[in-house]
Design brief:
Layout lengths: L2 H12 L1 H12 L11 H8 L3 H7 L3 H26 L6 H15 L1 H8 L13 H11 L8 H21 L9 H12 L20
């Protein structure tokens, strides 16, 4: 038997295809990062030499951190603006959810980078982030007055689910708009409570969105 035939026989006996699939599955036991566009591709978009990009961002990690900061601030600004401009009789939980979902669907790549990637480079949270976090936790008292932070995480999980599935399952017939889904969600979680934002009380925001 020639060497090439011996190699082929050994490969067939190993069932390399199954090994390759198993290795890929093993790698997927850890969250996978969502990549920021490469420094070179950004240089091409700005019509500058790659060296000009490296002057401002020595590594892709530096660029990733800057992008995270910018997009996180944009998301927070959108939700805060919606809450601040909402009519007095508006359901503020629904308003917050609508703004969150709308921003995410308008910025799909940024949203994936922020919330669908196990990012080792933490964003330096926008200065107004904690203020928004506190407002969401206070709104979540409608869902659970005794555990508003846990309720805020529940709301965030639900909003994230609406966004993530719509980003990835575009072929599905949802039968409702994202905002209709949000209102059904709010009705299910807090069906008998006032829609008005309660007064500020205890309840640390910790790291809510």
């Amino acid at each position: 038997m020639t060497r090439s035939r011996e190699t082929a026989a050994a490969r067939d006996s190993r069932d390399l295809r199954a090994e390759l699939v198993a290795a890929a599955v093993a790698m997927l036991t850890q969250p996978q990062p969502v990549a920021v566009p490469s420094l070179r591709s950004i240089a091409r978009a700005c019509r500058v030499a790659p060296s000009a990009v490296y002057w401002h961002f020595p590594s892709e990690a530096d660029l990733r951190s800057a992008v995270l900061d910018t997009e996180y601030a944009s998301l927070i600004k959108a939700v805060e603006a919606a809450l601040d401009s909402a009519p007095e009789d508006a359901d503020r939980l629904a308003v917050a959810g609508d703004a969150y979902i709308a921003w995410a669907l308008e910025h799909p790549g940024a949203y994936q980078l922020l919330f669908e990637s196990d990012d080792e480079v933490p964003a330096t949270r926008a200065a107004h982030g904690p203020r928004l976090q506190q407002r969401i936790v206070e709104l979540a008292r409608r869902v659970d007055p005794k555990a508003p932070f846990a309720a805020a995480l529940l709301l965030w999980s639900a909003w994230h689910g609406i966004v993530s599935l719509r980003l990835h399952k575009t072929e599905w017939d949802w039968g409702m708009t994202p905002h209709e889904a949000n209102r059904r969600l709010i009705s299910a979680l807090a069906p008998h409570h006032s829609s008005q934002e309660p007064p500020t009380g205890n309840g640390s925001p910790h790291h809510a969105p």
